[in-house]
Amino acid sequence: MRSLLLVRFGEVHLKGLNRPYFMHALLRHIRRAVADVGGEVWLSDSRIFVSGADDMEECARRVCRVFGVHSVSPALEMEKDDFAAICEQAVGLLRPLGGTFKVAARRSDKRYPLDSPAINGKIGAYVLAKLPHLAVDVHAPDHRLDVEIRDKAYLYVTRMPAVGGLPMGTNGKACLLLSGGIDSPVAGFMVAKRGVALTCVHFHSFPYTSERAKQKVVDLAKVLSGYCGPVRLHVVPFTHIQMDIHRLCPDNLGTLVMRRFMMRIAQRVALTEGAQALVTGESIGQVASQTMEALACTNETVTLPVFRPLIGFDKSEIVERAETIGTYALSSLPYEDCCTVFTPRHPVTHPKPEKVAQAEAALDVEALVEEAVAGIELVETGATGAE
Ligand code: ATP
Ligand code: MG
User: Fold this and answer.
1) Pocket test for ligand 1, best of 175, 182, 183, 317 (most atoms within 8 A of CB)
2) Which of 85, 233, 317, 381 is the residue whose CA sits 20 to 30 A from 226?
3) Domain annotation for the chain: domains and CATH numbers
4) What are the DSSP calls for 149-192, one per residue?
5) pLDDT tens, position by position, 198-214
6) CA of 38 to the centre of ligand 1 (A)
7) Distance 211 CA to ligand 2 centre (A)
8) What DSSP character marks residue 8?
């Protein structure tokens, strides 16, 4: 007998002929996530199993964060022929629990001498005799003891929900504009969840934004890497651009012109990194630069598609997601962001393209973009699933 994790995958099931490709990626990411806790990972009978880690709880937490995993059950693997031992272990699993239970048996081995109802009945009766504090409720039990009869027998009472989605990298790569705010890490998570690998860009306006503001973004990228694996963060020096905008453009267009620079530079990074789209944390109407017209005006500067997974989310919904994925506390640290430096008092909400073009005519856009790209500092974050 041994303890292991039984891993269920979600949509990978639906992949038809491409399924081996998705399975291979999923296995690779689970292996990466558990490598340094000693987990051994294999595929058998349409299930993924993990065993051998020193700390199986930590191992389970990590597997739950791998995209493509639907749920995880810490299970006991036993020889299926020793039915008395199975009954005994069922008692062991249910002993610490109270209330009602049911046994839910499934056989993929149809030659097994007992069918599912017989397994349920026998184990249920044995448990009741040994644990009189429990009662059976087959309709709405507090606990469900699953017994799967495959090449071995597997017993478990918990299903830990996992992140779901599709294995990382099976749907290309995107470049996330990662600020230190609440929204953009959530936007990155949502795209990554669909199997898209991330590369990140952050705009940093030293000395107007501090070293610790940059560190906060590195830390946010590390949290994302806990799901995605190592993430490359491109830190772009943005001070010169912001100073020029502030000096040479009408104040009310400042934010918009700045956002257009962000998009152009992000696209440059995306193309060198082999990314096929840009991702931002914008949602309609959240701030002046996120009206329909303003979004159209920032889109104009790039040819790559721009994904905004939070487009229809209220702030409270974004906060909830940020808490769930573990970025909220970091995002809430009160450090300055380049967007808060030189914020116009009355930003336009309905920009006119010709006015924006006029404003930008005062700047040497190409040279500023070149200079910023040339000054990029690359930070590699997170080598394991631990962070
Ligand atoms: P967030 O919480 O993500 O900072 P926000 O509501 O503060 O969003 P804005 O500051 O207008 O919104 O930024 C909109 C989007 O632009 C962000 O979600 C992010 O994708 C990108 N962005 C803003 N500032 C930066 C930055 N300093 N570096 C990289 N991307 C940025
Ligand atoms: Mg922001």
Assistant:
1) 183
2) 317
3) 2-161 (3.30.2130.30), 173-381 (3.40.50.620)
4) ESSSEEEES--EE---S--TTTT-EEEEE--SSSHHHHHHHHHH
5) 999 999 998 888 889 99
6) 38
7) 17
8) E
